[in-house]
Design goal:
By secondary structure, the chain is α/β, with parallel strands linked by helices. The protein has eleven helices and seven strands. Helix 6 (134-144) links the parallel strand 4 (119-125) and strand 5. It starts with 5 loop residues before the first helix and ends with a strand.
Length: 279
């Protein structure tokens, strides 16, 4: 999980772009069916970190199809909402879903297209683990957040759960698709600093963000064999493969499900949750 070199980064961006064109809105379709112990989706968990009484301007980084902003708009219609994403296909959906919000196509590792101290709260849901080098993004989040403003993000924690249902089914699916042992790092590589509490805290502190909460967090739902493929089909490692390879993955995932579980099982997706404020 090392930061990538330039060529890897370009390839990674192209793959992400193709994925989001082919499976637009797939993250939200999956994650709105998983719930925390408190009965909240991961979107609602992030929305709950925004203080509706003081936050007037909120930015969602990597807003995808606008599901998080739609939830904010429902709760607090008077808020000014902004969404940024690299994918034009996702933004097209987001614009329809949240017509009152302002959207822009941009890469969050570049300078963000907003003036200094524009936002009372910055959110990001399942994006940071896709950013090869998070330092530029953290520095820009600091710049566009007002002093005292809040920053909250959630990202996947699959490395902490190598035998969890999701990673296990993925390993079998990828192995069958590629017809060879799945590479150790078959998931998109993330910036390893996200996964070390002290390192992330120090990095955020260097850019003027004080972390007040950093914890593991899971969302769960009941899963049957029939649901297993829809859950895995739009995952990054499988989404770019041809139909034959995806067919092999689908069969292997169904087989593995039957081998490991009875008719149904509670599947948990591991995440990490970070809340900080701008100094
Ligand atoms: C897993 S999806 C999450 C989408 C949305 N936040 C949600 O949870 O429904 C990741 C999103 O991040 C966007 N993304 C990935 N890398 C990005 C980058 N460097 N800059 C901006 N957006 C990026 C993708 O286009 C995609 O919409």
């Amino acid at each position: 999980m090392k930061p990538r070199n330039v060529a890897q980064s370009e390839q990674h961006k192209l793959r992400l772009q193709a994925h989001h064109e082919r499976f637009t809105g797939s993250t939200a379709r999956l994650f709105t069916t998983f719930f925390s112990d408190e009965g909240l989706t991961s979107y609602a968990t992030l929305v709950a970190t925004v203080d509706a009484a003081t936050a007037k301007c909120v930015l969602d980084i990597g807003c995808g199809d606008g599901t998080l902003l739609a939830e904010l708009a429902r709760r607090t219609p008077a808020m000014h909402l902004y969404g940024l994403d690299a994918s034009s296909a996702e933004l097209e959906l987001a614009r329809k879903r949240v017509p009152g919000a302002s959207f822009v196509q941009a890469d969050c590792t570049d300078r963000l297209p907003y003036p200094d101290e524009s936002f009372d709260a910055v959110l990001s849901h399942l994006v940071m683990m896709l950013v090869g080098d998070i330092e530029a993004t953290i520095s820009e989040i600091h710049r566009v957040t007002r002093p005292g403003g809040t920053v909250s993000f959630l990202y996947d924690d699959l490395p902490s759960d190598p035998n969890g249902i999701y990673v296990d089914l993925m390993r079998y699916g990828v192995q069958a698709a590629l017809q060879k042992a799945a590479p150790e790092e078959f998931r998109e590589a993330s910036d390893h600093r996200l996964y070390d509490h002290a390192t992330l805290q120090a990095l955020c502190a260097r850019y003027g963000l004080a972390i007040s909460e950093h914890r593991h967090f899971t969302v769960s739902r009941e899963l049957t064999e029939i649901d297993a493929w829809p859950m895995m089909a739009t995952s990054y490692p499988l989404s770019g493969l041809d139909e034959d390879a995806r067919g092999r993955a689908r069969e292997a995932i169904a087989r593995r499900f039957r081998e490991r579980f009875d008719e149904r099982v509670v599947a948990s997706l591991p995440l990490q949750f970070v809340k900080a404020h701008r100094l």
